[in-house]
Structures are given as structure tokens and as C-alpha cells.
Amino acid sequence: xxxxxxxxxxxxxxxxxxxxxxxxxxxxxxxxxxxxxxxxxxxxxxxxxxxxxxxxxxxxxxxxxxxxxxxxxxxxxxxxxxxxxxxxxxxxxxxxxxxxxxxxxxxxxxxxxxxxxxxxxxxxxxxxxxxxxxxxxxxxxxxxxxxxxxxxxxxxxxxxxxxxxxxxxxxxxxxxxxxxxxxxxxxxx
Length: 189
Hints:
Blueprint: E1 9-12, E2 15-20, H1 21-29, H2 36-47, E3 64-66, E4 69-77, H3 81-86, E5 96-98, E6 102-103, E7 113-114, E8 119-125, E9 141-147, H4 148-154, E10 161-163, H5 164-170, H6 176-187
């Protein structure tokens, strides 16, 4: 895959349109509060020293390969930018994460249906408004690292989601600076 950078131009034949990838990124992806799922995956990957994402197409069965393990990253937050416009700023009390099982070969419904990762990292942005929930500020995040075996013991094999309250019963919160060490401890098992 050819890498592009922020200065890569949009062209019409040989004629530059005066637009670059940076213009596109600003236009489409500048609301970081709507990108927290991707930011969480980036944060976890970078904490592990990973420079290239495993999950580029969205169809992979896990998000990160690391330490011989398959890691699934899930994100939720108290604040969403749409709340100000559509919910009068009210914050929903319920926070859930997807743990939906998948077929080992998504093209073959006869393949094994199970949670395909070895470890889940549940990422919670704890801020309750735009100022407090900046996803680029690591102190606004809590991470919960849970081996999939533990989830499978606690949850029905076909269960599609797990609440934040239940996740908190399965693992203590971890801060960004400790995230790699916690994940490494599960990779050694």
C-alpha cells in the first residue's frame, strides 16, 4: 500500500486542485469526539510500540496482534459531541462494550462462532463534557484489560455486549502509563 502524507495533492489529470489530504482529513475527521473508537485503538497500539494497525479494513477478527496474542479494542465514553445538539447535553448512564462473537471465517457461517481475540482492552473516556473528555489527553482515559477466557467464564457464549459495571468487576482500571505492562502480563500467560 502506498503511504500518503498530509501534502499529497488531489489532482485532475496533471492539474492540481489546490487540495491536499490534510484538507480532506480536516474536513472529514476533525471532530475527534466522533473518532474516539479509532483514537482508542491508536492509543493502545502506540502504548505497545505498534506503528501499523492490524485492522485496516474493519473485517479482521481482532484489532491488534501483539506478543503472540490477538487483542480486541473496545471504546465507550460518557460524552459524545451529538449530545449537545440532540440530547440537550444529557449523558446516558448506561455504558456498554461489544463482545459479540464472530465466525472464524466470516464468509463461512459453518465456521466456529466464538470471541476470536485472546485479550480485550476496554477503553473508557471518563470526561462528561467536551472540555473534560479530550481524547488526546491520556488522563481522561481508563483502560480495563480482560482476557477473553475470563469474559467467556462470566458471559454467555453468544452474549453481544457487556456493561461497564460488569467490566469493572472483572478488571481494575489501568492508566495509560501502565497499559503496556498490564497487557504484557497477560501475554506471558
